[in-house]
Amino acid sequence: MVGASSPLLAQIGRLATPPAEALGGASVDKARDFFREVCRILPWTMQNYKLDELTTLSALRRNVSLFFRQHAHVTEPRVVDVLIYKGREELEATYLQHKQRHHLIQDYVVKPEQMRAAGVREQNRKTSAFLDNFYRNMPTHQSAAIDRP
How far does the signal peptide extend, from start to end residue (predicted)? Predict the structure, then answer.
């Protein structure tokens, strides 16, 4: 287990996010700084949890950025502070190795790929106006059935 005086733990920053008034700046800047902080710790995480067997550092960064982009619509400073606080808790639990390897694999390797696949399926479901019109005017199976003697 890693000691509390480790320089990497100091790099994580304060465990509790100070109020928005104390931080100053836009919530976008706070989120961007936190994302950069997470990205700086990813190489250590890959090495200690042996994630390089399953994914690359760039793929892991892309997966983490997917979680950040899920909340891109959030603009209220208090909500951004809460999200950053939750992210810091997650980061601390990962750094202090309170999570096991399969937790990280499930949350940051498998789940983002499933989310991307669901997004692609959703995009593929959108049909053109021509097909929508065609499907709407197509007779149903029962009415189109041919009566056989």
Answer: none
